[in-house]
Design a protein that fits this description.
The protein has a domain at 86-155: Ribosomal Protein L15, Chain: K, domain 2. It contains 3 helices and 6 strands; from the N terminus they run αββαβββαβ. It has helices at 77-83, 105-110, 142-150; strands spanning 87-90, 102-103, 121-124, 134-135, 139-140, 154-155.
């Protein structure tokens, strides 16, 4: 039986960084400081405690919350989610129902037209409806109400 000798080349390990050896004591990791430590990194935009680059420039048009703007301030976004606004659906999406079907919150969830977690829904008037359906227990805008009744449906 012939013996096989395992050479060091066939079992070479990866480079052990920062432990001396062939590459010197720091092994290419630099010397001292935050970036020289194991696992440490400087977060993007950090300039050693100095002002961030975007803080050096003046605010330009549209950069702040202006009076009369309809957009929600970022502080109040969480409240809006908690407040439970109704899920919005357009009247054109009602074409998946057949003539005479009843459109309720439950049927909208079954057809996956709104999220299953929605507590309320509102139908808006974008698009055209081709089938006469009965809408119950769902808020309907004025334009959507006109289009549903024109197609032969009813809104309860």
């Amino acid at each position: 039986m012939q013996r096989q000798f395992i050479t060091s080349a066939s079992r070479s390990d990866g480079k052990r960084v920062g432990r001396g050896g062939k590459r010197g004591t720091t092994s290419g990791g630099g010397t001292k400081g935050q970036k020289g430590r194991a696992g440490a990194s400087v977060r993007p935009g950090f300039r050693g405690g100095d002002n961030r680059i975007w803080q050096l420039f003046p605010k330009q048009r549209g950069a702040t919350k202006k009076h009369g703007s309809k957009r929600v301030h970022r502080k109040h976004r969480r409240y809006q989610v908690i407040a439970g606004k109704p899920a919005v659906i357009n009247v054109a999406a009602l074409n998946v129902f057949t003539k005479g079907d009843s459109v309720t919150l439950a049927t909208l969830k079954e057809r996956r037209l709104i999220s299953g977690a929605a507590k309320a829904a509102k139908i808006l008037g974008t698009g055209e409806v081709k089938v006469g359906v009965t809408v119950e227990g769902v808020d309907v805008s004025t334009s959507a109400r006109e289009k549903i009744t024109a197609a032969g449906g009813t809104v309860a």
